[in-house]
């Protein structure tokens, strides 16, 4: 398609001038026929490229404009051209500026954000998307088992090349790094492929823009903007669930871009099929490409994130020092959300530079008491019993039951010990959950484990593993 347009560019001559004049005349007729607004939006961006055998070739800035013109104005255009003396029976609309084909002329008469020639400097910065956080880059993103797939997919899409996964759908709980990854992709694409137009918006922004455009009768500008980008990223798409007309518009934008082989990246707090009040057709479109989830963080990832952030702090201020077991403690205790983890570290850092000495575990616990309390994962006694029974391969009923053989008694004591350590239950309460045992039996069990753990490395290992299982 681009080649045809270029070839015609080379044959400009008298006939072309004639065509330009006829087109200008036809435009006058069209202006009054379709109305000024329609004219400016749809007709003015068209550019005559050649006329032969009754076929008028017009270039269009985007496929969307082309589709719209074909559906709504083709007949009027043909008629007005005939009136202007051009022998036109049919239109052939071609895209003026296919992706990556920068040499093709961009036939735009009105200022058009889709045309890089109209916008000096960094094209991407002129797209009115939501702001990108400069800290959210691939460099600062710590990769671990729970997010490695999402990270790899994001990298792959940011590298560009043939559109691999479209859309890329990232989902996961709050604070697991969805927005971070999306910003990282946007930054990376801007850096490595500055010619591409990357638009990142939160779904909320998308909706507000849409509503605004409706109110100000600028809906065509809105459509044009969102359909003219090379990469569209919509964050937290669950937000538009239940908002019908926004969904409708999103659906059309989505289709138009996929049609043009433009890359789409979506994030949500849950899988496409689990977003309530999202139309089925949208759900199914969202599943076309690659759907990857960010799993809840594990201990190693949390520790990795803490160490990375701590290194960054220390690069700024080498006097700050935190005992190594503090980071391990935090990675162990704060399991919900990376944002909370970061908040804790930031506070710790501020505290450390205030007190001017190494932050010990005690100081950290003091300084973060409130955060730690909230983050305390509420493990239930039942959960502990179940996990311990699984681990030792015994039946749950035997764990609670009266049998006292050693193969059952030891796991039972381990479960008692963990119940004491990980829950806020009182000893009598724990006793009740262990088949109505007396609280002194619980004390005995807890002591037994405490006693054994220093001399029995296998038991110590079991406990470490179980704690981890129960806290993630
Ligand atoms: P989400 O959008 O999934 O709710 P964010 O991307 O906003 O989460 O992440 C919350 C915070 O946690 C951000 O400050 C982000 O930089 C940080 N974060 C999350 N995951 C990672 C990671 N793997 N490495 C480094 N920082 C992370
Ligand atoms: Mg987010």
The CATH homologous superfamily of the largest domain is termed P-loop containing nucleotide triphosphate hydrolases
Classified by CATH, the class of the largest domain is Alpha Beta
Domain count, please report it: 4
**Radius of gyration from the CA trace?**
32 Å
* pLDDT averaged residue by residue: 84
Gross morphology is: elongated
CATH topology descriptor of the largest domain: Rossmann fold
Please tell me about this protein's structure.
Mean pLDDT is 84; it is low at 1-12 and 98-125. Helix 8 runs antiparallel to helix 9 (219-227) and helix 20 crosses helix 21. By secondary structure, the protein is α/β, with parallel strands linked by helices. The strands form two sheets. Strands 5-6-7-4-8 form a five-stranded parallel sheet, sandwiched between helices. The chain folds into four domains: 3-106, DnaA, N-terminal domain (GMP Synthetase, Chain A, domain 3, 2-Layer Sandwich), CATH 3.30.300; 145-293, 3-Layer(aba) Sandwich (Rossmann fold); 299-378, Orthogonal Bundle (Helicase, Ruva Protein, domain 3); 381-471, Chromosomal Replication Initiator Protein Dnaa, Chain: A (Orthogonal Bundle), CATH 1.10.1750.10. It is built from 22 helices and eight strands. Helices cover 55% and strands 9% of the residues. The protein has helices spanning 2-9, 14-34, 36-43, 63-72, 74-83, 148-159, 178-192, 203-215, 219-227, 244-259, 280-286, 299-316, 324-333, 338-355, 361-367, 369-375, 381-392, 396-400, 406-422, 427-433, 439-453, 457-471, and strands at 47-52, 55-60, 90-95, 168-172, 198-202, 231-235, 263-268, 290-294. The protein binds adenosine-5'-diphosphate (ADP) and magnesium ion. Magnesium ion binds at residues 178-179, 235-236.
């Amino acid at each position: 398609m681009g080649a045809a347009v270029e070839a015609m560019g080379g044959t400009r001559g008298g006939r072309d001038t004639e065509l330009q004049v006829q087109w200008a005349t036809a435009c006058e007729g069209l202006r009054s026929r379709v109305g000024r607004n329609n004219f400016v939006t749809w007709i003015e961006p068209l550019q005559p490229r050649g006329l032969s055998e009754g076929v008028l070739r017009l270039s269009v800035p985007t496929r969307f404009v082309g589709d719209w013109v074909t559906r709504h104005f083709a007949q009027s255009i043909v008629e007005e051209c005939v009136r202007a003396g051009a022998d036109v029976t049919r239109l052939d609309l071609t895209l003026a500026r296919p992706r990556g084909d920068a040499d093709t002329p961009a036939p735009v008469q009105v200022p058009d954000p889709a045309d890089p020639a109209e916008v000096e400097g960094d094209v991407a910065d002129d797209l009115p998307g939501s702001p990108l956080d400069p800290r959210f880059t691939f460099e600062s993103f710590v990769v671990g088992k729970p997010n490695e797939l999402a990270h790899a997919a994001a990298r792959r899409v940011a590298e560009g090349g043939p559109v691999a996964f479209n859309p890329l759908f990232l989902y996961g709980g709050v604070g697991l790094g969805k927005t971070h990854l999306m910003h990282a992709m946007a930054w990376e694409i801007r850096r490595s492929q500055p010619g591409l137009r990357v638009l990142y918006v939160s779904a909320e922004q998308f909706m507000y823009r849409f509503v605004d455009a409706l109110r100000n009768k600028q809906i065509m500008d809105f459509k044009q903007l969102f359909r003219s980008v090379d990469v569209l990223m919509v964050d937290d798409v669950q937000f538009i669930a239940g908002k019908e007309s926004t969904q409708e518009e999103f659906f059309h934008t989505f289709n138009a871009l996929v049609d043009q082989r433009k890359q789409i990246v979506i994030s949500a707090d849950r899988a496409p099929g689990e977003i309530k009040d999202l139309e089925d057709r949208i759900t199914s479109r969202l599943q076309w490409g690659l759907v990857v989830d960010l799993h809840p963080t594990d201990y190693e990832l949390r520790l990795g994130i803490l160490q990375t952030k701590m290194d960054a702090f220390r690069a700024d201020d080498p006097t700050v020092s935190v005992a190594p077991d503090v980071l391990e403690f935090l990675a162990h205790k704060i399991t919900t959300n990376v944002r909370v983890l970061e908040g804790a570290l930031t506070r710790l850092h501020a505290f450390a530079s205030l007190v001017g000495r190494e932050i010990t575990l005690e100081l950290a616990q003091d300084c973060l008491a409130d955060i730690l309390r909230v983050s305390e994962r509420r493990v239930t006694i039942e959960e502990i019993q179940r996990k311990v029974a699984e681990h030792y391969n015994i039946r749950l009923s035997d764990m609670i039951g009266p049998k006292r053989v050693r193969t059952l008694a030891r796991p039972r004591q381990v479960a008692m010990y963990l119940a004491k350590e990980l829950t806020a239950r009182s000893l009598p309460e724990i006793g009740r959950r262990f088949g109505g045992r007396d609280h002194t039996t619980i004390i005995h069990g807890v002591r037994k484990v405490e006693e054994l753990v220093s001399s029995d490395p296998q038991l110590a290992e079991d406990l470490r593993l179980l704690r981890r299982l129960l806290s993630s």
